[in-house]
Amino acid sequence: MDVANATVFITGANRGLGLAFAREARRRGAKKIYAGMRNTGGFEESGVVPVRVDVTDKASISAAAELAADTSLLVNNAGIAALIDGPLASDVEAQSIRMFETNYYGVVRVTQAFERILLTKPHAAIINVLSDIVWLPRPYLTPYAASKAAAWSFTNQLRFHLREQDVQVLGLHVGFVDTDLTSGIDVAKASPEDVVRQTYDALAAGKSEVMADRGTAMLKGTLAAEVPGYITPPPGL
Questions:
Q1: 3.30.1330.10, 3.20.20.10, 3.30.420.10, 3.40.50.720: which CATH number matches 7-220?
Q2: Are 75 and 10 in contact (CB under 8 A)?
Q3: Which GO terms describe its molecular function (predicted)?
Q4: Quick one: which of 68, 38, 66 has its CA closest to 53?
């Protein structure tokens, strides 16, 4: 699916990767762009329509879907993260519940709300923002990793479910991206603009997945190895 002339709805679009998705969609000639966010106050971006939506609140999701009933491309980008002491930390359960509410159930809720809308369009697609963390052991991100692994599994089931109805489902896998979400983590980070360009290019090429940085592509390539990257990460990751 080509973004040109599409009507795009992006969750978590007030900043970071979500805002980069909105700006690149505008650059590529999208017909209309909805920027979903919890608080629309103060948001001003030419050619982008702010829409209040909280992916943990079904009522706000339903209202957003009703408002944006012309959507043909849904981008499930909203996400949260937090650092903990490890997989057995005292707060691992509380943080996991918090991560799953947004990073997994949020994707499910929004997709459910937009399914009927997308099925009425001659060309429709869904982009789910995932992460290389599903294959990369980082104990301090255990709740986030678990929530993104669940979102990846859901994406694979969703793709198969919608394949016969001509709705393209693209999973975006990427490592750390240079946004506010990762500002406290001192690691190499990909440019949000570059990630978005690669994602929209993959969508236009009809792909089902995109590995948007070198490290993620390297990690994915280890999955069939005798010692895959989720057991022993490749050097440099």
A1: 3.40.50.720
A2: yes
A3: oxidoreductase activity
A4: 38
